[in-house]
Write the structure tokens for this entry.
Amino acid sequence: MIVKKLTDAPAVELEAYQNVTKRVVLGAADGSGEIALRHFSLGPGGASPYHTHPFPHLVRIEAGTGVIVDPDGAEHPLQPGDYIYVPDNERHNLRNTGPDPFDFICIVPARGEQPACLTPADDDS
Amino acid sequence: MIVKKLTDAPAVELEAYQNVTKRVVLGAADGSGEIALRHFSLGPGGASPYHTHPFPHLVRIEAGTGVIVDPDGAEHPLQPGDYIYVPDNERHNLRNTGPDPFDFICIVPARGEQPACLTPADDDS
């Protein structure tokens, strides 16, 4: 088994995004071949693209305040302790609406975590 | 998409365990057919059985203090913010070592979350 802390996972600045830092906390490098657990920190004004992908998201909000935008463009407010399920191919994005970092963990099946896919065009967030 | 809070998920007392409450926060009932996210709260003295199962665990400690026991019987101390990966078929258990509830989320592939399997003999925790 592996026991680790968030800061044991390298932080990657997603420059093609808007003010977003990502860490793959538990993933293929840890032997987790089925599921990946990633941590995202969106700085003030930070957002993921409004996008779709053929895999689900399971999300838990960790810190800060933000919204998730649904396929109709409606914004759902989020706070720490909230959980979200986004099905495959459902359009969404997450956006920081507060002055502090907006942090969340985002769990995906392994096919959703591909190191080469860090641009909005081949998005994995 | 579904946005929910921990308390939106029914709490189940696992009486065959030792002082453990479980909530399936995101799972099949939410449309999540690949991955389940469960929340466990172990009261003082609470523990899961020392057991194995043919699926992995991805764990994040939420509150309290405890340990995870590895296949050699060694105890690894845990605190909020720690992450754990337990591979398929690796013996382990989690135990509360403090005076307060020891809470964690535990993510499994769908085959690891079967409602009928709530006894130690057919364990899913």
